[in-house]
Every structure is written in C-alpha cells, then in structure tokens.
Amino acid sequence: MSQEASLLRSPGDLGSFELRLPSTCLFDVICSEAWPTDEARKKRDSPELRGGREEMAAEAAGYRALLPGESSFPAEQAFASFRIPRSHLFYASPSGLTVAFVNLKPLIPGHVLVVPRRTVPRLADLSQEEFDDLFRSVRVVQGALESSYGAEASREWRRV
C-alpha cells in the first residue's frame, strides 16, 4: 500500500487504528507534515490554553451556522465517561437520535465527533433507526465541514 493511501500512527498514539487517506487530502498540511503525538496535543481546557471551553463553544457556534434548520440540543451529551455541554454541540438530527460536537483534543482543524444520543458499546447495539440516523448525520456534518474548509474529501478511521 502506498504512503498516500495509508498512514500508520505510532503504537499507543490512538490505540491500534489505521488512518486511510484519500488521494486528495482534507488539509494539505496533513499530507505534508507528520501527525502530532498524543503528548503534543493539548486538551483545550488545560491550564496552558486559557479559555479552551470558550474556544470550543465558539467553534461549535461557527459550525452550527453552517448547518440548515434549527436544532434542539440536549442540556448535555454523554460520551463514554465525559459529559459534553450544550455549548459544544453543533448538530442534532431532526429525529434527535444523533448529535455532533467539537473535539476536546482535536488532531486537526475540523476534527469533530458525530455520535448516537444513546450510548451503546457497539454499532450493532443501535436500533436500525438509530444506525441509519447516525450515518445520515455523518453525511450532513461531513458536507458542511468539507464546504467550510474547502476540502474535496474527508478521512476514514478504521479499527485494525
């Protein structure tokens, strides 16, 4: 496999994940520079980055403006052991089954998470309606972010 088609992270960076890059990268800088190590990535609410929560809320508000319609956001969203505040959410599907929010420790600009409202251990545990809504939502969010950043493609994470 060519380097353009696949890039393996160092062991322990993000567990055992393989990153598949499309032929046209989402961000040119990622194609030409190395990915940051986990140690180099700082949480946006760390003491070194004052105002991280406000930065995340502002980023979410910017993405919210890109998406059509009015969304009703829950007060917070559970994500593993984390509680994501409403101010960090920027998309809720019309059915309310899926939300999207900004990443606390992004790899690159535009690195966001799209998740089902109901927390389950595996995708197979979602109902068909939740599963379909999740991937419809991924398409909506992906389209808005690609437009925002002028990208022709996005990345796909796949468990190895």
From TrEMBL:
UniProt cross-references to InterPro entries, sorted A to Z: Bis(5'-adenosyl)-TPase_reg, HIT-like, HIT-like_sf
GO MF: catalytic activity
Domain HIT positions: 75-160
Protein name: HIT domain-containing protein
Organism of provenance: Effrenium voratum
Source species taxonomy: Eukaryota, Sar, Alveolata, Dinophyceae, Suessiales
